[in-house]
Request: fold
Amino acid sequence: MNAAARLEGTQPDGVEPEDEVLFEQRGRLGLVTLNRPRAINALTHRMVQLIRPALARWAADESIATVAIVGAGERGLCAGGDIVSLYNDAVSGDGSASAEFWFDEYHLNSEIARFPKPIVAVQDGIVLGGGIGISAHASHRVVTERGRLGLPEVGIGFVPDVGATWLLSRASGEVGTFLALTAASVGAADAIEVGLSDVYIRSERIANLLAALEATDAGEAVMLLSEDPGAPPLHTTRSWIDEAFATHDVSEIIRRLRLSGIAEAGQAADAIVAKSPTALAVTRESLRRAAQLSSLEEALDQEYRVSLRMLKTHDFTEGVRAQVIDKDRNPRWEPAGDVDAAEIKAFFEPSDDRELGLAALTRTQGELRI
Reply:
């Protein structure tokens, strides 16, 4: 899913739905190009439906050794999901369209993570929300100097999904919690430090990388072109981040940030206070629970339950209205303060009629392979 300013619900001029994703074989490389450059390649359901069978075909094709995922245009790999469609479904639909989109998208996230051949995802430019989902589960995650990665969902009354709770809950210290609650984005060095990326390659060398992947082992090609991204800026802030975000209570996090006397910590507190209290509380609990899970698929199962319930909240439609529809940047959250613990817990309860079921599916597939 995902965030605010990136989202455009209309189809770019001159791009037919079947052209939203381009597939090409170059030597031993299967190349996936997200092709909605005017929307910063924001993911539609149709795009996900095109990518899944293509990956399945390439997994079985002995002439394909490596898959690469790139974005068309200069602005970014992927700015997230088509939030306008989700908003419309929340306002005037019954939620089934969103449920079907997330069902396929989360399955794609798992399929990328479990793909039997190397997948090289090029995180160039903006990579937000669903863009994290389509890239950060790949076996080789390449970030450029233009890369800006983030999970900005709390700003629209939603929560990090697409397996992000699995990734962020495993970042060192409390940096993952910091990113999730402030909706901050990071550059190359920090993305590698947090665990959203693996190696740094300058954007001018991406064409060389793709050419090398046509005939060269993915790991070798990536390492030959990689460089040192420099020191992660978050290193200088880790002490106050780890101290402030170690608690599970969002109000206490804000209090600790204010009391630190550090300007950057105060700015982080300001950023959190502006977000949906419900989204913040559910996000903090999502990360706490994800840290105890044993697989990405279990985290995706949890995220699916939470996403379906967040879709029905006042804060989701209000957040999208304020950031994307009316663009007044003045959301009126309900509640505006602390959220009842029982209400938070309800977001995580199993559903009687709609579950993702990925963890059970992958366990069964593993047993069949044995």
User: Anything to note?
Assistant: The CA atoms of residues 150 and 185 lie 4 Å apart. The beta strands are 21-26, 29-34, 66-71, 76-78, 119-123, 126-128, 140-143, 148-150, 185-186, 199-200. The first strand starts at residue 21 and ends at 26. Residues 96-113 form the longest helix (18 residues).
